[in-house]
Amino acid sequence: MANDSLTITDNRTGKSYELPIRYGTYPKYGAAIDASQLRQIKASDDDFGLLAYDPGFTNTASCKSGITFVDGERGILRYRGYPIEQLAEKSSYLETAYLLLYGELPDAGQMEEWVRNITHHTIVHENIKKFIDGFHYDAHPMGLLVGTVGALSTFYPSAKEIHDDARREKQIWRLIAKMPTLAAFSYRHSRGMPYVYPDNDLSYTGNFLSMLRRTTELRYEPDPVLERALDVLFILHADHEQNCSTSAMRVVGSSHPDPYSAIAAATAALYGPLHGGANEAVLRMLNQIGSLQNVPAFVKSVKAGEAGRLMGFGHRVYKNYDPRAKVIKGLADQVFEVTGVNPLLEVAIELERIALEDDYFIERKLYPNVDFYSGIIYQALGFPVAMFPVLFAVPRTAGWLAQWMEMLSDSDTRIARPRQIFTGSDEREYVPLKKRR
Ligand code: ACO
To answer: pLDDT at position 69, please?
Structure first.
């Protein structure tokens, strides 16, 4: 179309430039100019050309992607076109992982083969146990997970061959299969408990619960309601387009290391309290508030900038209720029927009620995000808060790998190497130490 372009006039020179506009599937969200086109805009011949300044990449599309669609204004989340609410109700985590990675829901034969491949790779090398034993007794399980998943790369040297289809796929099976094992071993280490080997007769989340929970019984039988609740939480956490940890996966992956090293980087990015560590921070905040009558004063101190942020509220993309938070809030009732009600739930509900009626939060479009209620469920399931980001990293592995595969197959991909606006000194002469003041 003739008018699918942007005309820019540089008032320094009076010159005009016409930049083509490209679109994704949804023009409303996918319209962009190529940033490299700005480089032709120069104030003089020796000028480097115009850059786009965008700290935190708030308005920069770092890639094209067909995996996950988020409409933050309307509170919509879809994996490969399927609404998250439908997947949470009808799918399983492993089926959703397949969908994210391969683009389509599997047929019965594909599903059987996929589950078999994942199930057959759940065991880790015995040396991993010795490696974990080397960590301090009170090491945070997320620190352990970052270290051990990175260490896996040394056990599979052929994982470097990322352009070999068969080898790449094998690492995908291994990573999805072994993350729960590493996560469970990290937890058991931090509790001083013996490691439990995978039980391949159980489901993905049933086996995970067994590796976390089993003590002296011969066989661990997961409660079907809790097993399904964890599976739904895993579906909700499986991908979320270009967030901090996924961007870390793509940035690190763009220099072509093996996927274990890139997943270690993504896991580290997820560890921070502004990202996957937020559900841990929510629980600490709810404990600090303690009871219903303290909620109004707490909200007041958040607004006054005295109590930090309201953790579990606000999102870079969602300016509406996070659709995952809605599903999780519903899931809480099913879990609490089995585990008994978590007393922090009523504090959370009151906090949400007050915040959603308050002008400060309304004006800034701050709504509960995925982390607001997930921590309360994880606590009811018996997990200590330090395990919360680990419970996020395990299912997000499928999303990270799907995004990594997409990046590798995209001919536009180049090694990630942003520019800067230099604000330091101009050239100056080195002064020997004795002559410095
Ligand atoms: N509590 C109180 N005020 C907030 C909050 C909050 N949780 N979040 C944002 N604000 C305010 C900011 O102070 C700012 O106010 P101002 O305009 O008066 O300065 C305004 O809202 C905009 O905030 P930004 O920091 O610009 O928003 P940004 O998009 O950069 O941050 C983020 C998003 C990091 C998620 C933020 O909302 C936050 O810190 N939330 C709490 C942590 C959290 O729950 N993280 C989990 C996110 S979900 C996930 O990663 C899985």
So the answer is: 95
